[in-house]
Each structure stands twice: as C-alpha cells, then as structure tokens.
What does this fold into?
Amino acid sequence: MAKKEINEMSFLDHLEDLRWHLIRICLAVVIVATLAFIFSRFIFKEIIFAPLDMTFPTYHFLCNTANFIGINTTFCAEEMPMIIQNRTMAGQFSADIWTAILAGFIISFPYVIYQLWKFISPGLHNNERKHSRGFIIISSILFFIGVLFGYYIVTPLSLNFLANYSIADLVDNQIDISSYIALVRSSALASGLIFELPIIIYFLTKIGLVTPEILRKYRKYALVVVLILSAIITPPDIASQVIVAIPIIILYQVSIYISKIVIRNQKRKEKQHV
It folds into this structure.
C-alpha cells in the first residue's frame, strides 16, 4: 500500500484494517491452542507440573549452591510439601482449556507481533521500516527469554517459598489446581511482558514521549517501581525479589541506551535535511 493511500485512509478504514489483523491473531492463537489441547497431557506432565518435582533444574542448582556455601535450605527437600487438588466439577476441564489458550498465545507470539507490526509499519517512512526489520525477531527473543525466566526462576522460587510457609502444623497445603496454574501462568506471562521493556521504550522514544534524559531523571523512581513489580510476581522474601529485580534493572539500563540511539539517529536525520 502506498504512502499516499495510507494517509488517505479514514478512521473507519484504519479500524477495519485493525479488525482483520486482530482476527488473524485470534485465529493463530486458536489453531495453536487446539494443538496444545490435543497434547495437553504432555504439557501438564512435563511443563506445568514439573516445578513440583524437587529434581527440577532450579532446585537442583540452588541445593548444590546451598551445600557449597554450607547452609540448610528447603531446596534440598525430597518432595514439595503441597498437594494439588480439584474441588469443582469443571475445574480440570477449565484448567485444560485456559492452559491451552495460554500456550497458544505464547507459541504464536512471533505471529502476533508480526500482525501488529503489519498494522503499524505502513505509517512509517521507508528508512524507518528498513531499520526496524529486526523488530519481530528481537521482540520474540525478549518475550521468550522473559517466559523462560518466569518459568525457571520466578515460578520455582514462589512455589518453594509458599509451599514451605506455615502458620501452624495443623494446616496442610492442599492447593486448588486453578490457584497453582494461576501462579505458573502469571509468573511466566508477566515476566515475558516485562522483558518487552526495551521495545516499549523504543517506540515511546520514536513518538517523542520518552528521552534518555527523562529515563535518567526518573531512574530512582523506576527502581521503586521495579521493586514493586518484583514483589507482585514473586513471594515476599528479599532474595526472590532481588533475583527478579536484577534483570529488570538491566533492561531499564538497556532501554536508556536504546532511547539514546534513537534520539541520536533522529538528530542525524534532521541535520541531513537541513
């Protein structure tokens, strides 16, 4: 579509274009979710319920680390002190459906980003599109790294803390399946979205809402927000919050650098047009 045609598109035309992109996104998620539903037994056994096994890689690493330092830790326990149960008629079926939908979204994320990019890119100049060709790849890589971080770091730390937290010996941890899956889902998905911070800063800088100076000025406030986010997606112990906060702080610093590059390129283009 030519630039002129894009500029002449009415508001309703843009809405119609967006509608078709959203339809394609939904179709992709549904198709992948259907496949995930077919293989749901494997997904639950090997992925969803894997952090309940104390042979999970994260527990094994933390146990060895604790033994090397010479401290006692619950990461070396033989089993997780909790039982997963279902207390509603449609509980397991609902868990199956929503897990399939989540898997569908995560796996099809590159296509989701591609469709959103197809909607945004016609409004950019040719040179802007040229320099943004790696957008889909970079966004997808950051998202998948975030999901893996949430699954292998946030989820096991949260499970271990909450499963071993006790107010009295009389209380057993019999966790409803929906509560357990919600923890795994929120940990993985929230981390994946948080890792998209550099991409978000890139676009905010492009439209003039963010500058490196603003990011540096409000860095200390951003650190507070980071700690709050870490507290939300992790158990309320300092070690877990610090582990989660570190990559977010690194991403914030990377975002400042990205914003600086965008501003520098914009100034260079302005000089070339003078």
Remarks:
- The CA atoms of residues 100 and 132 lie 32 Å apart.
- The beta strands are 83-85, 174-176.
- The chain is about 75% helix and 0% strand.
- Residues 1-6 have pLDDT under 50 and may be disordered.
